[in-house]
User: What shape does this take?
Amino acid sequence: MENQTTVTEFILLRLSNDPQVQTFLFLVFLLIYLVTLIGNILIMLVIRANSHLHTPMYFFLFHLSFADICYSSVTVPKMLTDFLSEHKTISLHGCIAQMFFILFLAVTEVFTLSAMAYDRYVAICDPLRYAETMKKGTCVLLEAGAWTLGILEGLVSMVVVLQLQFCGPNQIHHFSCEPPPLLQLSCTEPLKEQLGLLTSAVVLGLISFLLTLISYIHIISTVLRMHSVEGRRKAFSTCSSHLTVVGLLYLTAFFQYTKPSSASSVVLDELVSIQYSILTPMLNPIIYSLQNKEVKTALGRMLGKLRFRFGG
Assistant: This one.
């Protein structure tokens, strides 16, 4: 197919055109990014260093933290650079590459959350067979499936966008190259491609959501049948962190991709995207460390050892 693309770069329009506001936003998002990196790296180090955390739930949490670091790193460094730059541009191929990684990591993350929900389902609904069901090989296959689906979604989307032609305008009303604002700039008639690309992402998100929902329907049903109040409390406490993370991610992502066009606005779309693509990766390690006693204990021990080593 002959390449008739005339646009070679896009302009990413920022949250504000005021230089002072942009400087303030640079500092805010730099802080968020640093907290995201430090928080998720700490979670990964704690899981690796503590043998008590070498369990299926923390195996998935390790991969979730790694995906969060990658996801945030796909968009935030470019955003920070543009806040301080006069030319806020990204090449066509750079934009398509960023879109690939956004979709790849988003799909990986939601299916990792589904695997974590399945792990909690087995632990609460079938505890006697937990060790047999959630053995190491099973966990590796589930997580490998999450990463594989992510890569496939990213590749399919990238191939679709490469078939489109971009003749101008070249201003993306967003801080990153997410599919909806990018597809709007195509000068061809990309209805079929748009529907295919967006439908695949939404369908995968719905599948992940349904898998998670089914797991929690069984979990809630099992917990409500427990006679012990303490047993119910412990069962729910093991799911509280995961439920909080799932709620933050799915509510905002589904709103972004399923809201009616009448409810769309540039500012609203960017705020929702900031929530699920930038704030959620920062909040995940905070939620898991604050609501999970095992993680708090292990983190406290590790920080205590570091203070003892470097503080004399």
Summary: The mean pLDDT is 83. The two ends are 67 Å apart (CA to CA). The chain has one domain: 9-311.
